[in-house]
Design brief:
Layout: H1 2-62, H2 65-70, H3 83-87, H4 102-109, H5 121-142, H6 146-157, E1 175-177, E2 189-191, E3 198-199, H7 218-225, E4 243-244, E5 247-248, H8 254-274
Antiparallel strand pairs: 1-2, 2-3, 4-5
Helix pairs in contact: 4-5
């Protein structure tokens, strides 16, 4: 009986060992199958991503240059200039001396063929940059036309240009303004029709836009045509009083004297500018 019990125990142990080995084999086969499926799934995902990238690239290649440029990140302030306006030679008067490879730049903007095989890589890069500068200068002329102003009005309504950061202007929408009509002098600023002051663009991605691409005329001509867009300035019932630990600062302190001097100089400069 003892021998029989020992024999049965040995058989049972072997059976359990074989069962365990079989389970391990099954688990290993399942893992191998799972890895293979993951690999196939990963390769499918890579192929799908490549297809999406190729489609996106083909769509970008097939889109007109103007649409591509306007839809670039950081170019939200621009509107689409109609090709008919660009094709009119009168509208481009004087710009040929401001942009290198002028004819090639115009052709690039209008999606006309350019003999790239005759140009070096450096020349092609110059032409691409020249096309962007030329479009900006054309844009400044287009937005003071009735059609261009209407397009900018739509962007203004959508708050594409941002709002005035001044508290008392109560979120008045701003318009882009150039301090000069010549390129590479000043970046674009934002003009608030409520406080009539200028500010830097809210987003740093717009800080590099040239102010000449909007010009010094557009903002004011735009507001003359859409005078109802201007909110009345909010004059607080009590002016802001600076305090330290809850106490008013003495009017005879250097701090208050310097503030009064700055305000006086600012007012006199404004009067001189109006004269």
């Amino acid at each position: 009986t003892a021998v029989s019990f020992k024999y049965n125990a040995i058989v049972t142990k072997k059976s359990l060992k074989m069962s365990s080995e079989n389970n391990l084999d099954v688990e290993e086969s399942i893992l191998i199958q799972s890895d293979a499926e993951n690999e196939r799934s990963g390769s499918i995902n890579i192929e799908q991503n490549e297809m999406v990238s190729e489609l996106s690239a083909s769509e970008e290649d097939s889109s007109p240059w103007i649409s591509w440029f306007v839809n670039m990140r950081g170019n939200e302030f621009y509107c689409v200039v109609e090709e008919d306006f660009i094709q009119e030679e009168f509208n481009l008067t004087g710009l040929s001396s401001m942009v290198p490879y002028f004819d090639y730049a115009v052709d690039m903007i209008l999606d006309l063929e350019i003999p790239l095989e005759t140009l070096s890589e450096d020349q092609q890069e110059i032409i691409e940059t020249a096309a962007e500068v030329l479009y900006g200068l054309i844009h400044a002329r287009y937005i003071i036309t009735s059609k261009g102003m209407q397009k900018m009005f739509e962007k203004y309504k959508n708050n594409d240009f941002g709002r005035c950061p001044r508290v008392n202007c109560r979120g008045q929408a701003v318009v882009p303004l150039g301090l000069s009509d010549n390129p590479r002098i000043y970046p674009v600023n934002m003009f608030c029709p409520c406080c009539k002051d200028i500010y830097y663009p809210k987003s740093s991605k717009h800080a590099g836009i040239d102010g000449a691409y909007f010009g010094s005329t557009f903002a004011h001509l735009f507001l003359l045509n859409y005078i109802d867009l201007i909110q009345p300035i909010n004059i607080p019932s009590e002016p802001y009083v600076p305090r330290i630990f809850g106490f008013k600062i003495s009017k005879e302190s250097d701090y208050c004297k310097s503030r009064r001097k700055i305000k006086s100089d600012s007012d006199s400069n404004a009067e001189n500018a109006e004269d």
